[in-house]
Amino acid sequence: MSWRVLLAITLLGAFVAAIAFLGEGAADPGGERFGNGGDGPGQLTALTVDATSCQDCHPEIYAQWASSQHHHAYLNPDVRETSADLTNQNCIPCHAPRPVYELGLETMPRSRSTHREQGVSCLSCHLIPGSASADGVPRLAGSRDLPAGTCGLPIVKTPSLGTYRSCEPCHNQHETTNQWKETPFAQEGSAYRSCADCHMERREFRVAKGSAPRLAWDHKMPGSHDRDFILSALDIEARLDGSALFVAVTNARAGHHFPTEERSRAVDIMVEWQDAEGKALLEAQRLYRLRDPYRGEQGIVRTLLPHGQTWSQTIEKSAQPAGAKKARVWIDYLRRPYDPVPDTHRYRLFERTVELP
């Protein structure tokens, strides 16, 4: 076989691979320059530009990310349900995004056409495509400068990485970073805390295979699916105040409203009045619901709890049912706000039984 035929076959294979990766053709300018063109182990090419390209060299970070909601962003059943199985195309750019640095941090990213099952992948946050850099050379955004990482791409210290700016292209679609900007955490000084300061624990581990452990950001990124993480941001009271029942929830430490992000989330504050033996006297009563209504929903007021604010209610003895000797108070986090909410779409944040006089 002549070298001309071999060259033609090689070029045809590269062209087919690029088309398979881009999927959307001319709608994705610069996509073919995501990789550096190499084909050796660890090289980022149009064929391997997915999270598994990072696993061999960064196994601990990969394992952290694999357990995160970023990884499950596209296959998450709650997302599937509320987006009509992602037939709502507006959801895909943030649940299977191309690199946020491709278009700039002031713009929602484009959606990927491949490896969507990886959700928000390593390269969604760390790859700076050639089309986004001055010299057209792809880079990886990191915390330090390295002429060439193990994947062959230069790593550049990127101050915006891990700050609200790198999160904003997706997480401000529901105004979460705007909410953060209204808190003391957004002010320069000792109180300043950005997204990563709360959602990415700093601890020692091996950032790369074979390297010594060092202080770095954990990529598990807990959020609304982590009960203990949510409770760490709240102060909750359920107690007797004289003969009255006093219930309060304070958003003491979250750097945004509570709950935030998806409008499909809500928080119910409930009470059940019981007799001395713990038998319910009435059907459980919802005292309050924290929720951000969908656009166009009628008759629903926005009741999210901003940072530093408290919701509270005092129920005097005269307003309690006759014979009530106990009040069981609980708070449920809901991943679907429409009644009746199945148990699969809720979990218990808090529960306490208060003895009444």
Question: How would you describe what is shown here?
Answer:
It is a single chain. The protein is α+β, with helices and mostly antiparallel strands and 357 residues long. It has two domains: 3-217, no CATH class; 227-355, Immunoglobulin-like. Helices cover 21% and strands 21% of the residues. Strands 9-8-11-12 form a four-stranded antiparallel sheet. The radius of gyration is 25 Å and the shape is elongated. It starts with a helix and ends with a strand.
Largest sheet: 4 strands, antiparallel
Measured as a percent range, the helix fraction is 10-25%
Number of strands: 12
Helical region count?
Answer: 11
Task: Report the order of strands and helices.
Answer: HHHHHHHEEEHHHEEHEEEEEEE
Order of strands in the sheet with the most strands?
9-8-11-12
The total number of structural domains is 2
- Tell me the Rg in angstroms: 25 Å
Strand fraction band? 15-25%
Low-confidence stretches: 1-48
Q: Average pLDDT value?
A: 85
- The global form is elongated
Q: From the helix content, strand content and strand pairing, which structural class follows?
A: alpha+beta
N-to-C CA distance: 95 Å
Give the quaternary arrangement of the chains: single chain
What's the arrangement of secondary structure elements?
Layout: H1 3-22, H2 52-55, H3 59-66, H4 77-82, H5 92-95, H6 100-103, H7 122-126, E1 127-128, E2 139-142, E3 155-157, H8 164-171, H9 176-181, H10 195-199, E4 202-205, E5 214-217, H11 227-231, E6 234-241, E7 244-251, E8 266-274, E9 285-291, E10 310-315, E11 326-334, E12 346-355
Parallel strand pairs: 2-3
Antiparallel strand pairs: 1-2, 4-5, 6-7, 7-10, 8-9, 8-11, 11-12
